[in-house]
Write a structure and sequence with these properties.
Blueprint: H1 5-8, H2 11-15, H3 20-26, E1 34-35, H4 48-61, H5 63-66, H6 76-90, E2 99-102, H7 104-116, E3 122-127, H8 131-139, E4 143-148, H9 156-168, E5 175-178, H10 192-205, E6 208-212, E7 237-242, E8 254-257, H11 260-274, H12 279-290, H13 293-319, E9 325-326, E10 334-338, H14 345-354, E11 357-358, E12 360-361, E13 374-378, H15 384-402, H16 409-415
Parallel strand pairs: 1-11, 3-4, 3-5, 5-6, 6-7
Antiparallel strand pairs: 2-8, 7-8, 9-10, 10-13, 12-13
The structure holds pyridoxal-5'-phosphate.
Length: about 425
């Protein structure tokens, strides 16, 4: 008898969608292809020798524990150094027991969805937003309310208007999800004033703030803005940190800082999911942080990414058509390009594939697929000459697209 998989899969399983973007990006892995699309750190900057030293240290001092199962919450030594670092560097007042180690920030997002979203529950996010969060929340059939972004990060007036509208229909969102600093995808940050206001609004309407912070320490310009969690005295913010962008994503190591009640629930969720994170890697990460190497590495990649951002900006100025606009983020790994309104970057992608260059189409980061004339570019991954060549190719793609019949200069001038 043929297996009837359709009968076996749950409705939740059936609602899972493959990330269209990841599918598109598979096409870009052939030789000679330049991808400015992926959210990857620069592999040349991985601190290979120091990691080797830390591994040797683990072999000398803790190898039997490192090869054993560990506690679900994570290695206490690691949680302790992380707590101290969070206090010192970010002003987040936390202790070891406020921290839970996860397999990447992505696992933390999935725990958020598992614990806070019933089917149809509402959550809020800015638009654009991180694709992986949308995927995690979609897996638990959450209902997304999008708030547009502005130059202070999130449009607070629109947030208030939408909350009032939801309130009238008896809906209170469970949480607001924010990548508050150097957001993926836009590279923008939420201002300090708006962070404070978000906390007030969250308290007024009684929802949580999920602060996902992979890029917060990658500041090249300007003063770092304190994380929302550092302003939280009531346990209203769940903070997610990760080693992925400051050390190596292959470690698959991240952490959640939250109130004890939430940490306990997440520990139960993790028990049923994977028992504990990789102990060996946790010991290596502990040696790395304790040895002060993380701070040095962050300094190193800040300088490197600052330089790469400038290489990309210079190339954009030189090659992109004057109708294209972009931001100059003061940190992180991405910048955001907006093209004339009658260019659809998704339709244009075919032309980019032909020229062997890739970007991420902007509408992928919008739950309602709006904003079709934008794209995300990554500046951290590629070598300088590859960035330059990639931008040249992309400029040709855009110029060709603009000269196709549907490009109408008057429409652009009047329509934006
Ligand atoms: C905003 C954001 N959150 C979470 C993640 C996932 O990070 P991790 O590698 O720690 O799972 C990423 C990765 O790009 C990200 O940009």
């Amino acid at each position: 008898m043929v297996v009837n998989y359709d009968r076996l899969f749950t409705s939740r399983s059936k609602s899972l969608k493959s990330s269209e973007i990841r599918e598109l990006l598979k096409l870009t892995q052939s030789a000679g292809f330049i991808s400015l699309a992926g959210g990857l750190p620069n592999p040349q900057a991985f601190p290979v020798d120091v990691i080797h030293e830390c591994i040797e240290k683990v072999f000398k001092t803790n190898i039997h524990n490192a090869l054993q199962y560990g506690t679900t919450e994570g290695l206490p030594l690691l949680r302790d150094v992380l707590a101290k670092r969070m206090k010192e560097k970010k002003g987040i007042d936390c202790e070891l027991h406020d921290i839970l180690i996860t397999n990447g920030a992505q696992q933390a997002l999935s725990f958020i969805a598992y614990n806070f979203l019933e089917q149809g529950d509402t959550y809020i996010t800015s638009a654009p937003t991180y694709l992986g969060a949308l995927q995690a929340f979609h897996a638990y059939q959450g209902n997304c309310e999008c708030i547009p972004m502005n130059d202070e990060g999130i449009d607070i007036d629109s947030l208030r208007r939408n909350l009032k509208r939801l309130h009238r229909t008896g809906i209170t969102p469970k949480f607001l999800y924010a990548v508050a600093t150097f957001q993926n995808p836009s590279g923008e940050s939420i201002s300090l004033e708006h962070r404070k206001e978000l906390l007030e609004i969250a308290s007024e309407y009684d929802f949580l703030i999920i602060e996902d912070d992979p890029y917060g320490e990658l500041v090249f310009e300007g003063k770092p803005i304190p994380p929302i969690k550092s302003l939280d005295t009531k346990g209203r913010v769940v903070y997610i940190g990760t080693f992925s962008k400051v050390l190596a994503p292959g470690f698959r190591l991240a952490w959640v800082v939250a109130s004890e009640e939430i940490i306990n629930k997440f520990a139960l969720t993790k028990q049923s999911s994977d028992l504990c994170s990789n102990m060996f890697v946790q010991y290596v990460a502990y040696e790395y942080v304790k040895g002060g190497y993380l701070d040095k590495q962050i300094q190193h990649i800040k300088t490197l990414y600052h330089h790469k951002r400038d290489v990309m900006i210079k190339a954009l100025k030189e090659y992109f058509p004057k109708e294209a606009k972009w931001n100059v983020p003061g940190g992180g790994m991405f910048l955001w390009v907006t093209l004339p309104k009658n260019i659809n970057t998704r339709l244009m992608f075919k032309r980019a594939l032909a020229k062997k260059v890739a970007y991420v189409v902007g509408d992928a980061f919008y739950p309602d697929s709006s904003n079709y004339n934008s794209m995300r570019l990554n500046f951290s991954y590629s070598e300088d000459e590859v960035i330059l060549e990639g931008i040249k190719r992309l400029a040709d793609v855009i110029k060709e697209e603009m000269t196709t019949s549907y490009y109408d200069k008057d429409y652009y001038v009047n329509g934006v």
